[in-house]
From TrEMBL:
It comes from the Eukaryota. GO terms for biological process: mitochondrial respiratory chain complex III assembly. InterPro entries: Cbp6. GO terms for cellular component: Cbp3p-Cbp6 complex. This is Cytochrome B pre-mRNA-processing protein 6. One of its GO terms (molecular function) is ribosome binding. It comes from Nadsonia fulvescens var. elongata DSM 6958. Pfam families: UQCC2_CBP6.
Length: 113
């Protein structure tokens, strides 16, 4: 097994640890990347530096490096004019509220401004 194959297999196994997307999309990041790297397994001329950079980037995503580096302040998360705005959206994304709650909330906001 070559060095590039080993790195690709590590990347694919790391992709397996990603959680399922909570929002339905046209394409899942996890699935697209797994397919991409599975195709790279067939290519014997894959640049090892490229693969190391890809693995490093995936490790940064998995460790939430940028979430910690660029933390969102409380002032930004809870704006003074509507402190529950993002909480309502997050609850809907995680499935804790009715599916149309975001739109009903937006309609309510429009009526009360």
């Amino acid at each position: 097994m070559s060095g590039s194959t080993t790195i690709i297999r590590r990347i694919i196994s790391a992709l397996e640890t990603l959680p399922k997307d909570s929002l339905k999309r046209y394409a899942s990041f996890k699935d697209v990347q797994k397919e991409r790297f599975t195709e790279l397994l067939k290519d014997t001329n894959t640049d090892i530096t490229f693969l190391h950079n890809q693995q490093k980037s995936l490790d940064n995503i998995l460790s939430n490096k940028y979430k910690q580096k660029f933390a969102v302040s409380e002032k930004l998360r809870h704006p003074t004019n509507n402190p529950d705005y993002y909480e309502v959206i997050l609850k809907e994304i995680h499935g804790n509220q009715k599916k149309n709650s975001f739109f009903s909330y937006m309609n309510w906001m429009r009526k009360h401004k």
